[in-house]
Design a protein that fits this description.
heterodimer, A: 426 residues, alpha/beta, 18% strand, globular, B: 557 residues, 7-stranded parallel sheet, 18 helices
Chain lengths: 426, 557
């Protein structure tokens, strides 16, 4: 079926057309990076290049493929759903949306009471920020320097200027950025009591997963309460059991006023995102329920994908496995690190959320390239390329973990030599 | 039992409950979370089991002993509660007798195997061979309704003793007591340091679910106890299986036997747990010249001798249309007599049903899972052996038989003639062949060997769940054998397995790393001596409390 619509004579022809009709810079970037990947087949934690090269995926698009590519249970649920549902009508109460909202609230930390749906993470962030502004009647938003919350109108302004300034989308008067793990700076930002919300990824992904200092997030929440701001937990990358709990924020003893989920909640099968909102912050849903509209937000097929994803993720067996996987990979990585501590300088780990630090400003790019050659796909951190994002899936088997570690050990050792030789470019 | 994929795995199909929609005008039901077949969940169990097995395979003897003791004691402490629960839930058996079995299969089992070691490598300098025990891994246990909790205890402890992990699929009739019993043992085992997921249980067993578990690559061995279809299905699954066939136990009494003792043992054994064990006697074969005396003793012990007409009536009642009516499974003798309209004394424990010829068309010659004992007189002990062979031609090949005699020649002739793999001598067969009143391996699973279509001919025991890696040196005397003393590749875990995934910058993670020796040059679980575990836990707890109290207010959670 797909062959009738998608046919190229060669990979070269396909890349040329990609440059011509799609995104010349992005297409060329990967070719220049030594990662000429065009993903074809995908299954479980494997992706295959059109030329057949197999890669173990530990990027997972930020957790989108937590449950593996084309998870058979999710695929079966969506396939079955297509016999009955389509995107649905966003104006009316919906079977699937209601069921998903109930499931999300039931499994969430207590206090989160309502759900608003979007079609992607950026939209969900925008919904969260708009909701906070409505609830507080304040306009300012505080986020972390080097934060990343997506590319839509409000979300992009919370993030690094790399993505905002280009499009003249930065709004310094309304959006302020404070350094991560810096409580005095946070207090300074909130002291004026003119801030609607602090938005934080529980572990900032695109910044290379620097870990919140023990107690930091709880204290930020305290500061929010003291200064009349809401706390928005961006759990798009850290949620859905990646840290060994459904939502990473609960490991910090924080009940957020709003919680945003995206990526993995789709099961990798149908785009959907959601904002969980406390009753106190959810006023607009009673005042004017049509105030945020989204034709694709909470599309019913996406709701089905999300329901199945959530059900799988909440099985007690999965939580147990995540703890096993985190332990095995953590030990393995520390063993690899012990052999080259001057190059592989640090491991940031919270469950299956990992950032691997290397002693070179572009260190993770060296490693990414060697990993690719060794059959592993992991990506550098855009906003801190010293750090490799290492995000294995929650359903990894013991033998796949062993294989992954074997490949990683080889690649990291080779990358050390590449970086030291000084001749090679990352 | 079908070997097809469960419906949910086939494109275009979905399991009931996977995705329900109303009939036109019917009731609204969108139920994506429920999955009655439970197959996906069972697969998740297998994957968790794989992780647990990997961890458990590296435990040392000391750690294993601690876990086995804890689990056995937890089971024994609830022996009576589960005995009563099993009778209540299944409607058959005798609670008092089930207590005996539950104890035998918990602390009793530990005592039996106290001197055994299925964990530590063995060295044979003469043969220049080192043997390293390696666990079976992921064991799928199918447990019966007749011996429900005792079998759960038994198989779980065998797994724990050998460092295997187990998923139990109980018989649907006994699923609640079995699930609870499995959880009791699991909690005790994990509390004593076993890896999380070491014992799991299927709450809603079903045919597609068992089929999915049996045919899954992650199941390393199936230990099947139950009816013939279950055992057959296990063997045809393609997964290595230890299954056992049914019994149909002949018991021969000759004139040399101590008839008073024989009578007492036979009645005790036949009435044990209302005769629902596969080891309960089925047909009593008695040499003519001893018959009258034996019958007097049997009556004294509580057996009621039916007349020919009553016996035929009982035969018709138990086997309507030629098949055993499960309504009579494990019911007591008086109740069964009452159903047949036969008045018997209230003290009746066994109904003795005489018949003439051991042939397939005689219902009373078949296995009867209730306290009805067939009775056949034979002119000589020699003819008795033939009758016993005839009983076993009907069913029960490979299983067990009993004999009460003081004549070693007869006992030998009997043992060499009947096609079974164990013969209880001067002991009731129920507890004799199951090793509780003999020195056979105590077992709820009796291997029927090649006679009975099984890969195992012994009573199931821990050794069946161990495989050995043999390091075999060059036989040439010029090549010396290594010195292996003190080389144990296993360890006790340093804390909960798996450890909780504390963030790497937390005080808890730092404490674990520093106490466990930090970097992973240590193979599996750090080089922590057993005595330090409590200290480590205490240290972690202290740090957690410290950190929590450092959180301002700390109310959020």
């Amino acid at each position: 079926m797909a062959e009738e619509l998608i046919a190229f004579a060669s990979k070269g022809e396909m890349l040329a057309k990609s440059r011509q009709f799609w995104n010349p810079d992005k297409t060329q970037f990967w070719v220049d990076s030594g990662i000429p990947l065009v993903i074809d087949r995908r299954e479980g934690y494997f992706i295959y290049d059109v030329e057949g090269k197999r890669l173990i995926d530990v990027h997972l698009n930020g957790g989108t493929y937590n449950l593996g590519h084309r998870n058979p249970e999710v695929a079966a649920a969506v396939t079955a759903a297509m016999q009955h549902f389509d995107i649905g009508n966003h104006h009316f109460p919906s079977l699937a949306r209601t069921a998903l909202a109930e499931a999300l609230v039931t499994t969430a930390p207590p206090g989160l009471a309502k759900v608003v749906f979007g079609s992607g993470g950026g939209e969900a962030i925008d919904i969260a920020l708009k909701t906070a502004r409505h609830a507080t009647k304040k306009r300012k938003i505080v986020s972390i320097a080097k934060a990343y919350h997506g590319h839509t109108g409000l979300a992009v302004a919370t993030g690094d200027e790399r993505f905002a300034a280009l499009f003249l989308a930065d709004r310094p008067d309304e959006f302020s950025h404070v350094p991560f793990n810096d409580l005095p700076a946070m207090e300074q930002a909130l002291r004026g009591r003119d801030v609607a919300a602090v938005i934080m990824e529980t572990i900032p992904a695109t910044y290379g997963f620097p870990l919140p200092a023990p107690g930091y997030l709880a204290q930020v929440k305290q500061l929010c309460e003291r200064h009349g701001a809401l706390y928005i937990a961006d759990e798009v990358q850290t949620g859905l059991m990646r840290t060994g709990e459904l939502w990473a924020i609960t490991k910090h003893g924080v009940v957020p006023d709003l919680l945003v989920t995206g990526k993995g909640i789709s099961g990798g099968m149908y785009p959907i995102s959601a904002v969980l909102v406390s009753e106190a912050a959810a006023g607009w849903l009673s005042e004017d329920g049509f105030a945020h509209m989204s034709t694709f937000g909470g599309a019913e097929l996406g709701c089905v994908a999300a329901l199945k994803t959530l059900e799988i993720t909440c099985r007690p067996e999965i939580r147990s496995m995540v703890h096993y996987i985190a332990d095995l990979l953590g030990r393995g990585l520390r063993r690899i690190q012990a052999a080259c501590p001057d190059w592989f300088t640090g491991i940031r780990q919270d469950g299956l959320v990992m950032g691997l630090e290397f002693d070179h400003p572009q260190g993770a790019k060296f490693v990414m390239k060697r990993l690719y050659a060794a059959g592993v796909w992991a990506i550098f951190s855009t906003l801190d390329p010293r750090v490799l994002q290492f995000k294995p899936g929650v359903l990894m088997t013991p033998s796949l973990c062993d294989e992954l570690l074997d490949r990683v050990e080889v690649a990291i050792t080779q990358a050390a030599a590449d970086a030291r030789s000084g001749r090679r470019q990352p | 039992m079908t070997t097809e994929l469960p419906a949910a795995a086939q494109p275009g199909h979905h399991a009931p409950g996977e995705f329900h929609f109303p009939d036109p005008g019917g009731q609204l039901a969108v139920d994506l979370l429920a999955d009655p077949a439970g197959v996906p969940r069972a697969r998740a169990m297998l994957q968790r089991a794989e992780w647990a097995a990997r961890a458990f395979a590296r435990y040392d003897k000391q750690a294993v002993d601690r876990i086995v003791h804890a689990a056995a004691q937890a089971g024994a402490a609830k022996a009576r509660e589960y005995a009563e629960w099993a009778v209540r839930e299944t409607g058959f058996g005798v609670a008092g007798h089930k207590v005996v079995k539950n104890l035998a299969c918990s602390t009793g089992l530990v005592e039996t195997y106290a001197g055994h070691d299925y964990v530590t490598p063995r060295f044979d300098p003469a043969a220049k061979i080192v043997e390293v025990p390696r666990p079976a891994g992921v064991v799928l246990a199918l447990t019966p309704s007749t011996n429900p909790v005792a079998t759960v205890f038994f198989k779980s402890l065998l797994a724990l003793m050998t460092r295997s992990v187990i998923i139990i699929s109980p018989h649907p009739l006994a699923r609640e007591c079995c699930a609870d019993a499995a959880r009791t043992l699991a909690a005790a085992a994990v509390g004593a340091g076993a890896p999380d997921g070491v014992i799991q249980v299927v709450d809603e067993p079903s045919v597609p679910l068992i089929n999915a578990l049996m045919t899954d690559d992650r199941t390393e061995v199936i230990v099947a106890t139950g009816g013939v279809p279950v055992v057959r299905a296990a063997y045809t699954s393609g997964t290595p299986a230890i299954g056992v066939g049914p019994g149909n136990v002949p018991v021969l009494v000759d004139a040399t036997a101590d008839l008073a003792k024989a009578a007492r043992r036979i009645v005790d054994s036949k009435s044990f747990d209302n005769s629902i064990l596969c080891t309960n006697e089925s047909v009593l074969i008695v040499e003519d010249k001893a018959a009258d005396a034996l019958l007097r003793h049997l009556k004294r012990e509580g057996a009621f001798l039916l007349d020919a007409g009553q016996a035929a009536r009982i035969g018709q009642l138990l086997f309507p249309g030629g098949h055993f009516d499960i309504a009579f499974v494990g019911k007591d003798a008086s109740w069964i007599a009452g159903e047949a309209g036969i008045a018997v004394p209230g003290t009746t424990r066994v109904l003795l049903a005489p018949f003439d010829l051991v042939v397939p068309e005689e219902p009373l010659a078949h296995e009867k899972l209730c306290p009805v004992l067939g009775l056949v007189r034979v002119p000589t002990a020699r003819r008795g052996i033939d009758a016993a062979r005839a009983v076993l031609r009907i069913s029960g090949r490979g299983h067990s038989a009993a004999i009460h005699s003081a004549d070693p020649a007869l006992i030998m002739a009997y043992g060499a003639a009947v096609e079974v793999l164990r013969v209880s001598v001067n002991v009731g067969n129920s507890l004799g062949s199951s090793g509780i009143e003999t020195n056979l391996a105590p077992s709820m699973t009796v291997g029927t060997g090649y006679f009975g279509g099984s890969s195992v001919g012994e009573n199931l025991q821990p050794a069946h769940l161990v495989q050995w890696t043999r390091l075999a040196y060059n036989a040439d005397p010029a090549e010396p054998f290594g010195s292996f003393s003190g080389l144990i590749p296993w360890e006790s875990p340093a804390g909960p397995v798996p450890p909780y995934p504390f963030a790497s910058n937390s005080a808890e993670a730092a404490a674990v790393a520093s106490v466990a020796g930090g970097q992973a040059s240590v193979p599996a679980y750090g080089g922590l001596a057993h005595g330090d575990v409590a200290g480590l836990r205490e240290e972690i707890r202290r740090l957690v409390i410290e950190e929590l109290s450092a959180l301002v207010g700390g109310s959020g959670g």
